[in-house]
Specification:
It is built from 9 helices and 19 strands. 25% of the residues lie in helices and 35% in strands.
Length: 348
């Protein structure tokens, strides 16, 4: 066993799952280190929730295995896996009080009543819900219900915490608050955590690393910076953040001839003749630069701190550009020149 494998708290090896003719998981492998928060990011139908359900024990894989803390759990029932889980719909018992909801996992494990009371009080304090123990879920706001679900998931000190799009039902401001709260709590407790989302911004805010999924396979696993700055392929580049993606061929060292005409200088040493993808993030453009583009504004949007412009450039290229909001918003039809330096262009 390699050193990296040995330090993995969660190890998923070659897991496959089909539903009839649909391949939900295609030999998926990944590992999550102890205390790490890994986000699985992908569109609907990419397989991310199926993977989480396999780890939790709600789905049986057709092949492969799942190991937690060095112990294989592939065939164990959910209740024997020592895993905490929070769902998008919270899954609270509506007829039980907050205290009884949080106590439930401990009662299932036959913990003594005095110890249950102590640990429930501790968990509610962690999620800032002291004094709410006697209330029913319907007497709480969405954010408070989410905190109760989180308290119930961590009260029995699980080896692993699974969060399945837990903030999907919350409004934007509350969602951002809960993201930061979960991250603080996860770090303080050192909880190994898998977080499922289709929201790229949420993934970048929360994660130590991100695994991007599509059509049952993992396209790339990397740190948030690497996923954004150096995506592995077209899908990751397009799915994570706004992007200008072009294709072309390396025509000379450090030069890519773009399909449709024109060329750009890049910081890449790929040999001539190599077919490549070129990614230019909208915010990387500036008034000057090595690679200059001039175009007519076909769309302009004011975003408070920035302008978002869509430019129709020479050679048929269309560019999405973000600029600091200085001066008036460029009108449709106005001519704008922007530049981007070679080291701000990612070649893949």
């Amino acid at each position: 066993m390699s050193e990296s494998t040995g330090s993995a708290e969660l190890l998923i090896e070659g897991v496959g799952k089909r539903f009839g003719d649909v391949v939900a998981l295609d030999h998926v492998s990944l590992q999550v280190a102890r205390g790490e928060l890994l986000t699985i990011l992908g569109p609907s139908g990419s397989g991310k929730t199926t993977l989480l359900r396999v780890v939790a024990g709600f789905e049986t894989p057709d092949g492969g295995r799942v190991t937690v803390g060095g112990t294989e759990i592939t065939a164990l029932p959910p209740a024997k896996r020592d895993i905490g889980m929070v769902f998008q719909n919270y899954a609270l018992f509506p007829h039980l009080t907050v205290k009884a909801n949080v106590a439930f996992p401990l009662e299932m494990r036959n913990v003594l009543r005095a110890e249950i009371d102590r640990r429930v009080a501790e968990a509610l304090a962690m999620v800032e819900l002291e004094g709410y123990g006697a209330r029913l879920p319907k007497q709480l706001s969405g954010g408070q219900q989410q905190r109760v679900a989180l308290a119930r998931a961590i009260v029995f000190n699980p080896r692993l915490l699974l969060l399945d799009e837990p903030f999907g039902a919350l409004d934007r401001k509350l969602r951002e608050t809960m993201q930061l709260e979960v991250r603080r709590l996860q770090r303080r407790l050192g909880l190994t955590t898998i977080f499922i989302t289709h929201d790229q911004e949420e993934a970048l805010v929360l994660s130590d690393r991100v695994a991007v999924m599509n059509k049952g396979t993992i396209q790339q696993i990397a740190t948030t910076t690497e996923i954004y700055e150096r995506p592995a392929n077209d899908f990751v580049a397009d799915f994570v953040g706004e992007s200008n993606i072009f294709h072309g061929t390396v025509s000379a060292p450090g030069v890519v001839a773009l399909e449709g005409g024109g060329s750009v200088k890049v910081a890449s040493d790929r040999p001539a003749g190599t077919k490549v993808g070129v990614l230019m993030r909208p915010e990387r453009f500036a008034p000057g630069g090595v690679n200059l583009f001039t175009g007519a504004v076909i769309e302009s949007v004011y975003l408070g701190t920035s302008f978002k412009l869509r430019l129709a450039c020479e050679g048929g290229l269309e560019l999405l550009v973000r600029q600091p909001a200085r001066g008036p918003l460029p009108a449709a039809g106005a001519t704008v020149t922007v530049g981007i330096d070679p080291d701000a262009i990612h070649v893949f």
